[in-house]
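We emphasize that the prediction below concerns an isolated chain of 158 residues; any contacts that depend on oligomerization or on bound cofactors are therefore not represented. The input was used exactly as deposited, without trimming of termini.
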Amino acid sequence: MRTLKPDDLPQLAQLLAKLAAQGSFTTAEVSCALELLQIVIDQPAQQDYLVLVAEKAGIAVGYVLYGPVPLTSGNFDVYWIATDPAVQGDGYGRRLMEAAEEDMCRRGARMICLETSSQGSYARTRSFYDNAGYTQESVIADFYVPGDDRITYVKRFS
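Result of the prediction step, given as a token string:
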């Protein structure tokens, strides 16, 4: 795991495009994800978003974007985690999440929150969060669009 480099953006854009092509992300979600990555590259002094990248043979094959929640004490959000479909199931996502959690804990995390969709295409994502030790905390019905609920997961640290 390492921090984001400007050279990663084209590789991560391709990764996100692959995920969109298989229905994991919408075009709007990919645009948002790329916008946040660009903020991290363009504004190195900002502290709202932190990124860790997983690589295989020198190629970025996944990333996690997270950060502290403003106006809270020890709360962090995981905004994005994505791995190339070619390496899914090889442990890159798990290692990214573990490395991000370790970093957040070093930064004083007492709680990590993340949200996802209730749509069927996100079933694998929800299973990933369950297996990573996150607990479903809340559901907001029809949050994204009618019929698509927001599910919030939480992991607490003592």
